[in-house]
Amino acid sequence: MIKSSKKLERIYLFIVFVILYLPIFYLIFYSFNEGGNMNTFTGFTLDYYRELIEDKRLIMIVIQTFLLALLSSLVATAIGTLGAMGIYFTKNKKSKNTLLSLNNVLMVSPDVIIGSSFLIFFTVLGIGLGFKSVLISHIAFSIPIVVLMVLPRLNEISESILFAARDLGASSLQIITKIIIPMITPGILAGFFMAFTYSLDDFAVTFFVTGNGFSTLSVEIYSRARQGVSLSINALSTLMFFFSLFLVSGYYILTTKNQKKKSKAVNK
Length: 268
Fold this sequence. Notes:
It is built from eleven helices and no strands. Helix 8 (about 170-200) runs antiparallel to helix 11. The protein is mainly alpha-helical. The protein is globular, with a radius of gyration of 23 Å.
């Protein structure tokens, strides 16, 4: 029974991965199609990748998108980490649950509602739509993600370690910088990578708050796809997929290194 259940689990996982990744590999495969369509493969070519590199406007949008993702994720990681610490150190259970609920509002709310809310907010305050409005929006919806990544790590910290540090004369700043932050670093890194990825991929919120002079990759791909299917979009999507794969691999390597260091410290 156990062997048969394991086989069924493996078959199920295989089917799930096929369903998830087959469209992606289909897109990648036809990005090299000389025929210019996604119906029949007529021959191998790199023309669409060359076309992508020669498109100066698109290169500028790629730079803008990555700059936006980097800035928003860095700011969101800093604020989200402090926010997670604030929730962790809140002693009153009702206040703690209220803060957690408020944090989760942006996570469960539809992107269309969030995007339209930000649009109204910027319009009322007279803030022009562009890089600034998109940056603020991305920081806002990335903060709850960071909090949810960091908070479980904080909950794993034994309070006896913090009490021992205080008894030894450590200040609050020393406890945070020397004990808490090193222990929650994997959660901080996870929050940063998640925020970075969400910022790169976001379309709905960005579509509402971007202006005529600024665009991101997701919005640009959408606008180009409406004009007609071009295999240069496939080429761009392929490069983005492999970059995301690189980020995930980097995060995996960092986490495994941290786990090995912890296991070595425990063994010693």
